[in-house]
Amino acid sequence: MSDIRWLVTGAGGMLGRDLCSVLAHSGENVTALTRADLDITDRDAVFKAVRGHDVVVNCAAWTDVDGAEAAEAAATAVNGTGVRHLATACAGAGSRLLHVSTDYVLPGDATEPYAESAPTGPVNAYGRSKLAGERAVAELLPEHGYTVRTAWLYGEHGPNFVATMLRLAAQRDTVEVVNDQYGQPTWSYALARRLAALGRSAHAGCAPAGVYHGTASGSTTWFGLARAVYALSGLDPDRIRPTTSSAFPSPARRPTYSVLHHARWTTVGLTALDDWHQTLPQALRRPTFTALAEASAG
């Protein structure tokens, strides 16, 4: 067991649960706080929670992208002001903060992977709310603040695209999936392991503060991911039919290109996450996904 005292906020979510599992398996000293345990918009509660911890990993967030369009102030209260509370508390306590952010802070119109230093330019309210959090971390924790952007996250412990595709297989003969948005399907458990490694490096003083891109390597479209999920789950991938984003209008505009570059990991002696083709089969062997696949096949 290391001597690091960890605090994980948003510990009841998909990534938070995986991170707590990774840390517990390594024998780490972890305080896991769900949304019911800690509302990060409550400044006094945040200061009390952070006290006595060396590394704080913020997995708490407003994640309803479409809902943020009609409630941007509420989304920013969590994703911006709440993160500012955490950063302020960490600055006072001398703690490292690892804050989980998103590709949505970028404009999403590139044709090659976004570098960690690429100019931001969110195209929706959710992205603006998350950018407010990133700026708070950079401003208040220039030496001890780490922003880890992720995207296209899937895992066992929450709603996600992979689980939805498997459920739809039991309900429909064919499923239409957009083929004009590009990204990097990222297994939450794989990201959790990388967050744990970064936290240890940060605590040891071996990791420079700033932005890191926590997505799988490689890229595909939602259509490509859905076909891979079916093929690996023993289902007919030809049941997945391509369509365009215009077939699924939504309140929030989505970026068309969410592929991120991962060069910064080498500065801490770590490699980028594996290619999504390698991690997806591992994830689909987990009980939650195998049960969904069996139900769909049956």
TrEMBL record:
<dbReference type="InterPro" id="IPR005913">
    <property type="entry name" value="dTDP_dehydrorham_reduct"/>
</dbReference>
<dbReference type="Pfam" id="PF04321">
    <property type="entry name" value="RmlD_sub_bind"/>
</dbReference>
<dbReference type="InterPro" id="IPR029903">
    <property type="entry name" value="RmlD-like-bd"/>
</dbReference>
<dbReference type="GO" id="GO:0008831">
    <property type="term" value="F:dTDP-4-dehydrorhamnose reductase activity"/>
</dbReference>
<keyword id="KW-0521">NADP</keyword>
<comment type="similarity">
    <text>Belongs to the dTDP-4-dehydrorhamnose reductase family.</text>
</comment>
<keyword id="KW-0560">Oxidoreductase</keyword>
<comment type="function">
    <text>Catalyzes the reduction of dTDP-6-deoxy-L-lyxo-4-hexulose to yield dTDP-L-rhamnose.</text>
</comment>
<comment type="pathway">
    <text>Carbohydrate biosynthesis; dTDP-L-rhamnose biosynthesis.</text>
</comment>
<feature type="domain" description="RmlD-like substrate binding">
    <location>
        <begin position="6"/>
        <end position="286"/>
    </location>
</feature>
<dbReference type="InterPro" id="IPR036291">
    <property type="entry name" value="NAD(P)-bd_dom_sf"/>
</dbReference>
<protein>
    <recommendedName>
        <fullName>dTDP-4-dehydrorhamnose reductase</fullName>
        <ecNumber>1.1.1.133</ecNumber>
    </recommendedName>
</protein>
